[in-house]
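Students often ask why inverse folding is considered easier than folding. One informal answer: many sequences map to the same fold, so there is more than one right answer. In these notes we will look at a single instance of the problem. The structure comes first.
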């Protein structure tokens, strides 16, 4: 079944010049990029995006980080796109959870600076796509 998911290349990924490498992995997997742009995240968008983490101790730092520089935001399409993109990204902690071969496993060292984001469910994907790409049907 074709699905859509939302992805971000976070400020650390853009800053480190990993945008091309990450997009190449997305394309090599066979996922289609349905929408994408480089943008500076407004604090209000970041707060809505990460609302479920509002009570976590790292929330303030997370908002600072995600608004600290440009991100690449986009929508991926394909069969089981949500799980496929999460597999490509790897677990949240790039050292303890992300397998070698995944983006975080290959390029990350810290949980906050974990390079990419992916929606974790159909509900999150719908919510995040509506927030970041309200014009997308
Ligand atoms: P992401 O998949 O975008 O979802 C929430 C983000 O919060 C996560 O990636 C990390 O960037 C960040 N995060 C999660 N846990 C921690 C933590 N323990 N310390 C710092 N940042 C975290």
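Output (designed amino acids):
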């Amino acid at each position: 079944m074709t699905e859509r998911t939302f992805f971000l290349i976070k400020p650390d990924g853009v800053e480190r010049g990993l945008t091309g490498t990450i997009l190449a992995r997305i394309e090599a997997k066979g996922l289609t990029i349905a929408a994408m742009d480089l943008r500076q995240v407004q604090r209000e968008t970041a707060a809505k995006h990460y609302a479920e983490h509002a009570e976590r101790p790292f929330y303030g730092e997370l908002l600072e980080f995600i608004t600290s520089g440009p991100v690449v935001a986009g929508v991926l399409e394909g069969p089981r796109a949500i799980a496929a993109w999460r597999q490509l990204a790897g677990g949240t902690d790039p050292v303890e959870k992300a397998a070698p071969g995944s983006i975080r496993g290959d390029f990350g060292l810290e949980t906050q600076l974990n390079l990419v984001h992916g929606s974790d469910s159909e509900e999150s994907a719908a919510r995040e796509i509506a927030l970041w790409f309200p014009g997308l049907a």
